[in-house]
Amino acid sequence: MASSSSAAALWTAAPHPHGSCIRIHAIFHQRHQRRGRRPVVVASSVRPLQAASLAVATAPVAVASRRTAAEEAVYEVVLRQAALVEEATHRRGAGAPRWAEEDAVDWGLLLGDAYHRCGEVCAEYAKTFYLGTQLMTPERRKAVWAIYVWCRRTDELVDGPNSSYITPKALDRWEKRLEDLFEGRPYDMYDAALSDTVSKFPVDIQPFKDMIEGMRLDLWKSRYRSFDELYLYCYYVAGTVGLMTVPVMGIAPDSKASTESVYNAALALGIANQLTNILRDVGEDSRRGRIYLPLDELAEAGLTEEDIFRGKVTDKWRKFMKGQILRARLFFDEAEKGVAHLDSASRWPVLASLWLYRQILDAIEANDYNNFTKRAYVNKAKKLLSLPVAYARAAVAS
Ligand SMILES: CC(C)=CCC/C(C)=C/CC/C(C)=C/CC/C(C)=C/[C@@H]1[C@@H](COP(=O)(O)OP(=O)(O)O)[C@]1(C)CC/C=C(\C)CC/C=C(\C)CCC=C(C)C
Ligand SMILES: [Mn+2]
């Protein structure tokens, strides 16, 4: 949502080599209310609770039913990515190139520069992610940087300095470029790095296409009628990141968890992060005419769009926010269970980023739910403390 002034650099600094990114649904399971029932099983057939606010406000809701259309659509992608990873692991080896060596472009030294620049961009825009990649193997680290840069550039299309010029056609062109790079025909050096990454790791193109789809939504959609609609949006712009990065970060060889369950946890982390982003930015978004909150849940809480634009913290608002925060925390909890199944070097950065983001929810509470005019943030001391604590926890999990 926010844009960055140095973003233009992502578009201009790159020399052109040719000369010129279920249902976890967290099973959104009211475990605090359904004591004595089976623990959460990721990807079961139980329907996620679409309105966690209900969990706060009302009696237990029976949630066992079929997946919604949004959940089905997302679940398909999870299954597809999990299958790709399993196939790569069992048949070809996770490090084998996707297409025949002779078809691949020989980027030679350029590729080294391309990855290096991706690292610089990641370091500049996302210091914590960057720091987190330092323990990974060089191959994995470079690959996460390349994915990061592609995601950042995609977001900058609709949120950056040139966003007013972005049309659905421009996003179609960006998607064509994505297809090209997946087929070994990168357009610029950042694309070349990602092209190399997807040739080495079993990364499916669908989450990348879906992130572009999320950006398409941002071009015309500024209201979400239900959590189901919002869930799909969060999957598009953030859940996808989990599906893109786990094939690179790797699942622990001794993990007994199913590939699919680890992917569901990764998806949960993206959703949790985006729900947190949304709750933090309610005021900022409303000033841009946007409301990324489920309108039906707002109405159930006795709140209207006008209440959001007015931006007054009332008891109704506090109650509504408590429900939204609870839901985001459930997604974080779901994600946290998956961390232990990642390759050991990847656990620390993921846990650290999870804790840092989750603390934003604590900050919203500390601000007495005033997310209209106060920006919730995690102070530097807390940030710094999270890193060694996450490191110690991740080490214990190995
Ligand atoms: C098993 C398990 C738990 C695995 C973990 C899997 C994993 C690493 C998941 C990553 C989840 C994650 C970091 C999601 C990103 C969510 C996010 C911040 C999305 C942002 C979307 C739109 O935001 P908006 O415009 O509303 O807000 P801004 O004001 O613009 O911030 C994004 C901006 C989309 C673009 C996403 C990125 C640029 C971040 C991509 C990050 C990576 C590829 C690095 C992940 C690596 C590590 C080490 C955690
Ligand atoms: Mn953005």
What report would you give on this structure?
The protein has about 400 residues and is mainly α. It is about 65% helix and about 0% strand. Strands 1-2 form a two-stranded parallel sheet. Helix 6 packs antiparallel against helix 10 and helix 11 (about 260-280) packs antiparallel against helix 15. The radius of gyration is 21 Å and the shape is globular. It binds ligand LST6JFWI and manganese (II) ion (MN). Ligand LST6JFWI binds near residues 159 and 262.
CATH topology: Farnesyl Diphosphate Synthase
Strand content: under 5%
Number of domains: 1
Question: Pairing-aware structural class of the strands and helices?
Answer: mainly alpha
CATH superfamily descriptor: Farnesyl Diphosphate Synthase
Instruction: Note the run of SSEs as H and E.
Output: HHHHHHHHHEHHHEHHHHH
Attached small molecules: the ligand CC(C)=CCC/C(C)=C/CC/C(C)=C/CC/C(C)=C/[C@@H]1[C@@H](COP(=O)(O)OP(=O)(O)O)[C@]1(C)CC/C=C(\C)CC/C=C(\C)CCC=C(C)C, manganese (II) ion
Instruction: Report on the biggest sheet.
Output: 2 strands, parallel
Q: Count of DSSP E strands?
A: 2
List the helices and strands and how they pair.
Blueprint: H1 8-12, H2 52-57, H3 69-92, H4 108-125, H5 127-133, H6 138-159, H7 168-182, H8 189-200, H9 206-220, E1 223-224, H10 227-249, H11 259-280, H12 282-287, E2 291-294, H13 295-300, H14 305-310, H15 315-339, H16 344-366, H17 380-397
Parallel strand pairs: 1-2
